[in-house]
């Protein structure tokens, strides 16, 4: 999905020079949707089957911690994918102030949380420290992106979020309720 995201930068610069905000919006919506499809096609099965995947790959002694770390970091991407394309759109429009603030704030909180949590939770603490600021500040970056694109939440939810996240939600729910096996490590580890 990174390839999809980086490809929008030159297109955005061109469209911004032509003052075609509607075309930039369309580009954002489509590229975000395609990035989500690519990510969830790969990321969701890895999220669900992290435990057996790592058990077969690295051995059982690393599986419990490794699968939990992998799931926490993949969960981070569930939020990050909403603005992944948007970052390149903003760069293409020359609107980088919010990106700098977002990046610095997330980096500082990431460092502080990871430093505090590593002492008690070790590698899982670092994964949580990395994930937390990006999840918390997702609204900030999306809100600023929508302001520059003159998009509203309803458009985004109707065209991008719901069509992608609802099937993902029901897939995860199905696995938790009906196939509640060791494969879904995040839930089984926390219970």
What does this structure look like?
The chain is mostly helical. Helices cover 85% and strands 0% of the residues. It is built from ten helices and no strands. The protein has helices spanning 2-17, 21-48, 50-58, 63-80, 84-92, 97-121, 123-136, 138-149, 153-178, 185-190. Helix 2 (21-48) packs parallel to helix 9. The longest helix is centred in the first third of the chain and has 28 residues, at 21-48. The protein is globular. The model is unreliable at 186-191 (pLDDT under 50).
N-to-C terminal Cα separation, in Å?
33 Å
Mean pLDDT: 89
| Structure summary, number of beta strands | 0
Q: Roughly what percent helix?
A: over 70%
Shape assignment: globular
Return Rg in Å. Answer: 18 Å
Q: β content, as a range?
A: under 5%
Largest sheet: none
Topology:
Elements: H1 2-17, H2 21-48, H3 50-58, H4 63-80, H5 84-92, H6 97-121, H7 123-136, H8 138-149, H9 153-178, H10 185-190
Supply database-style keywords.
single chain; 191 residues; mainly alpha; 0% strand; globular
Entry summary:
Helices cover 85% and strands 0% of the residues.
């Amino acid at each position: 999905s990174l390839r999809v995201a980086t490809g929008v930068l030159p297109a955005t610069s061109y469209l911004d020079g032509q003052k075609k905000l509607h075309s930039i919006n369309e580009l954002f919506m489509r590229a975000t949707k395609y990035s989500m499809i690519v990510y969830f096609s790969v990321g969701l099965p890895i999220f669900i089957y992290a435990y057996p995947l790592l058990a077969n790959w690295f051995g059982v002694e690393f599986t419990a911690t490794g699968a939990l770390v992998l799931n926490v970091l993949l969960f981070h991407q569930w939020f990050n994918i909403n603005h992944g394309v948007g970052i390149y759109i903003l760069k293409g429009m020359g609107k980088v102030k919010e990106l700098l603030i977002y990046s610095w704030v997330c980096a500082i909180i990431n460092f502080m949380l990871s430093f505090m949590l590593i002492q008690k939770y070790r590698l899982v603490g670092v994964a949580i420290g990395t994930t937390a600021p990006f999840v918390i500040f997702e609204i900030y970056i999306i809100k600023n992106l929508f302001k520059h694109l003159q998009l509203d939440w309803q458009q985004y939810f109707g065209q991008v979020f719901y069509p992608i996240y609802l099937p993902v939600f029901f897939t995860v729910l199905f696995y938790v309720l009906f196939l509640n096996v060791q494969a879904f490590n995040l839930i089984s580890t926390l219970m």
